[in-house]
Amino acid sequence: MVCMWRNLRSRLTISHLLPLLVIVPLLSFLLFYLIEARFVLDEATAELAGQGELISRLYQAELSAQEDPEQASSLFARLRVRIPTLFYLVDQNGNIVVRPGLATASTEVPIRPPDPELLQKALAGEIARQVSMGNADVAVPVRNEDQEVVGAVHLSQQLTDVTNRLAVLRWTVWGAVSAGLLVSVLLSFVLSRSLNKPLERLTAASRAVNFDAPPRRVEEEGPAEVRTLARTFNEMSERLYELEQGRRRLLSSVVHELGRPLGAIKAAAQVLGQNGKDSELVVELSSGIDDQVDQLRRLLDDLALLARNEIQNLALDIVPTDVGELVLEECRRYGQRIREKEIELITQFPPEATRAAADPMRLSQIIGNLLDNAIKYTPNGGQIQIEVGTETGLVVLTFEDSGPGIDPSEFERIFDFLYRSPRQERVREGMGIGLALSRRLAEAQGGTLTAHHRAAGTGARFVLSLPVEVAQAPVATAPIQ
């Protein structure tokens, strides 16, 4: 029994049947009571009372019968009633004037003495009725011309036929109720199965989740609540699959991103060990090592911010910052990679220094991420253009490259953590966190970062906007959402 209650299908079936098992029998008993007590038996006693009143009036009309008992017996012998009815005629003292007799020639009605209580009520002037032991008894007063009670008529009728008809009706109703309950059981089972089946599919799908392949969607059918649950499960499984793929890409990218600068540092160290007396070579290799270490530092900063994003706020030092100076510094830092790919770098700055209300270190990190992204996707011999300008109350920094560009459907998705476009699988560099962190750092400083198509030709265009004045900047501590 306990195991049955642990099963949702059993609970649903019982919850549908329990009201029927309680209410239907009660309604059936009420129906039997109303039919038997309020309709059939009341009608039978009312019919007997009508016959008694008819006999009373006939007796009142026959004056000779009232004066001579023999005449009364002759009168009642001539009275023919179409149903088996046993009757007595008594005078006002309760003495029997006409002995038990049948109104018909039937001998199937047993002889029963009149009920004293009914006769007493009839002699008191009221019509008395009683139903007991399968019999209906009625006593009707008999009056003279002055409406004085001079006797009573007692009629008795067996209810055998009535009870037989009621028994047939009772079995018919019970049969209909039983059939209805059986149909209800079947319908409840089918309905509970239809409700439970989608949940079983969800259970099977959750057990079959495998992040090595895209998840199979569960059919969204059934009641609205079950469809919502299935839709939520599908969205959750897809999101978990994307997160798992992002995690794997992140691990692969971390290995790749750490391996590159470490390999370069290792090679430079070996060359320095063999050619330590060449001062120019030492300076060049030392500069290269410094750049590689800076690249590692930036990578670690990005990873640290990715971890801190979920547990605490980021402290910002908002001060007037020369945007052009930071751009030139980052261009110098990435100069070797730009030269290796023979990329044409174009920078456009206003005549005067453009200052934004920003955290210099975090703004430098944003510029470095945008420049690194442009270098990764710009082919050899391509072009990167960086422009610094101003709009109303804003410093606008624009990055354009001649790479493959971005699909419009991905203008927002590329700013999700660990997202990498499936159209750019050939580019192994990157972990899918640089653009996401850059946008959140920009928003934390009161700015925006958006992606667009390049104005001319193929390629991507990123627009970074920051407030000009310190008064418009956010407070020193701002959350990264």
TrEMBL record:
PROSITE patterns: HAMP, HIS_KIN. InterPro entries: HAMP_dom (IPR003660), HATPase_C_sf (IPR036890), HATPase_dom (IPR003594), His_kinase_dom (IPR005467), HisK_dim/P_dom (IPR003661), HisK_dim/P_sf (IPR036097), Sig_transdc_His_kin-like_C (IPR004358), TCS_sensor_his_kinase (IPR050428). Residues 193-245 form the HAMP domain. GO terms for cellular component: membrane. GO terms for molecular function: phosphorelay sensor kinase activity. Coiled coil: none annotated. The chain crosses the membrane at residues 12-35. Gene3D superfamilies: 1.10.287.130, 6.10.340.10, Histidine kinase-like ATPase, C-terminal domain (3.30.565.10). It catalyses: ATP + protein L-histidine = ADP + protein N-phospho-L-histidine. It is an enzyme of class 2 (transferase). Keywords: Kinase, Membrane, Phosphoprotein, Transferase, Transmembrane, Transmembrane helix, Two-component regulatory system. The keyword RNA-binding does not apply. Residues 253-470 form the Histidine kinase domain. Its EC number is 2.7.13.3. It is found in: Membrane. Its main location: membrane. This is histidine kinase. It comes from Caldilineaceae bacterium SB0675_bin_29. The lineage of its organism: Bacteria, Bacillati, Chloroflexota, Caldilineae, Caldilineales.
